[in-house]
Amino acid sequence: MSTEPKYTRTDSAHPETARRDDRLPTPDVPIASQTLRPIEWSEGARFGGRELPLSRMAGARQVHVNLSVVPAGKQSCPLHYHLREEEHFFVLEGRCVLRSGDARHTVGPGDYVCFPAGTGVAHAFENPFEADCALLAIGPADPAEIAVYPESGKAKLRATGSIVPWPQPSLDYWAGEAVDAPVKRES
Hints:
Low-confidence stretches: 1-8, 13-19
Mean pLDDT: 89
Shape: globular
Radius of gyration: 20 Å
Number of helices: 2
Helix content: under 10%
Number of strands: 13
Largest sheet: 6 strands, antiparallel
Strand order of the largest sheet: 1-2-3-10-5-8
CATH superfamily of the domain at 36-165: Jelly Rolls
CATH architecture of the domain at 36-165: Sandwich
Strand content: 35-45%
CATH class of the domain at 36-165: Mainly Beta
């Protein structure tokens, strides 16, 4: 059994893990997104979508811009919030339901929503409608990002490429340190 982390969404993985296609970045050249085949992914019956990692294809280093499609009958990702990254979403076509904290909002073309970092407002998009919903997802590319998934009790630590139980009990700064062991003296 592999110990490598399993990620199916390109924007949920560490950049090296996320590369699932062989398109080379082309900075300073327009990208005709309508001519490109997006990366399809799914996880079980509930989650799935199509992603076109526009910013990665353009060679961006500081901002992620993804064209995301939430197919009919699917959810975009597990409900989550970010501790360091701010996320912006702009609906291009179709409709879906935005889960924002405990609220649900039907969104459609021209609707925009922002989730500032550190607010603890969990979010995800569900598509209970007959047609796909396309949106732009925009946010910083923070290598130290921590995403928290409150429904499943975990957090993703991007810097380490790991997913850990959350919330973790707080430890004392000196816990596990050899505080009573003297420093070995050199002669």
